[in-house]
Structure formats: structure tokens, C-alpha cells
Amino acid sequence: MNEHKHMEDDLNIDDDSMLDEESLFNNEYDSESDIIIDATIQVFASYMNNSHEPISVDQIKELLYSMKSQVKEVFRSPGKPLKPAVPVEESIHEDYLVCLEDGKKLKVLKRYLQNRYHMSLDAYKERWNLPADYPVVAPNYSKVRQKLAVDSGLGYSRKPKAKRA
Which end of the chain, C or N, has fewer beta carbons within 10 A? Predict the structure, then answer.
């Protein structure tokens, strides 16, 4: 039996009701996050039911994260301003930066934003109206990495220069 056909039978989902806004909001939710998770599950199930190509287990995680971030954008009302997890002024500390999306303390933002939210640094800065010089690496961590690079001779030629006569 086809793997997707088996999933379709197990899920037993009616595609007509998948993203029906009225049925989605008839459920009682404790938070906006619960709505987003439920909608993401419905979108994912619909995708899997209609997909004719097999998906590896590794691809499922990436697909779910991608769908969740897209669903989150759809459910964010255009008139409702974004609210960062912490005020922008309080997001920069000497030993860490605080992600404005979820409040997580990080030394480096780039990889976290890419893996967790599928977002580039430019998109992050634009989303939160951050200046171009907003740090994406904790200041102390940057100093440590710079010292390591200088100590190891990174950026310098390893051969001594010949003396001129």
C-alpha cells in the first residue's frame, strides 16, 4: 500500500473543512499560539494528503517549521503591531542578545533565526525596524572570537616576508 494513502486513511481528514476559518475559531483556544499550532497541523495534514511525492523524516521537521512561520504571518492581523518578546533596548547585553521573536538568550542570532524561523538577518531587522548596525553577535563573544582569530594568525601570511636589500 502506498505510504501516503496509508497516512490519508489514518488521518481521515476532510479537505473541505481544512482551513475553514469559522470551524477553526469555533474551537476554544487558550492562546494565539494554540490557534497557530492547530492551523499548522491542519495545513500540514492537508499537504501530506495531497502530496504525491514521498517525504523523508528529515524533511518533515523543516516543512513543519516553514509552515508554522507562514501560518503565523497569515494569522497576524495587519492592524496589530508586532510586540517583541523584550523591548529592543533591553535585547542587547554584553554576554548575550535576546531574540525579539521568542525571548531566547543567544550569543549569535544568525543560525538560530535561520533554523528556528527560516528568517534571514535582513528580514529580522526589517520585521523589528532595527537599525543596520544592530549587533547580531553578543559583544563579549565577538571580542573573544576576534582575539582567537588574531592569536591564531588568521588573515596574516604565515611565511615571513623576505627582507629587501
Answer: C
- CA distances (Å), origin 58, targets 48, 55, 106, 125, 151: 15, 8, 25, 29, 39
Q: How far is CA 107 from CA 67, 121, 142, 148, 155, in A?
A: 27, 14, 9, 16, 23
Distance separating alpha carbons of residues 35 and 15, to the nearest angstrom = 18
Rounded to whole angstroms, the Cα distance separating 135 from 43 reads 35
| Alpha carbon distance 18, 4 (integer Å) | 18
Q: With contact defined as beta carbons under 8 Å apart, do 138 and 109 qualify?
A: no
Distance CA 77, CA 81 (A): 8
Task: Record the pTM.
Answer: 0.53
Query: Cell digits for 111?
Result: 543560525
Q: Are 46 and 13 in contact (CB under 8 A)?
A: yes
How far apart (Å, rounded) are the C-alpha atoms in residues 122 and 100?
14
Per-residue pLDDT reduced to its tens digit, 12-64: 334 444 444 444 445 555 666 777 888 888 888 888 888 888 888 888 888 88
Q: Is the separation of the CB atoms in 91 and 104 below 8 Å?
A: no
Taken as a whole, the chain contains a residue count of: 165
Cα–chain-centroid distance for residue 68? 9
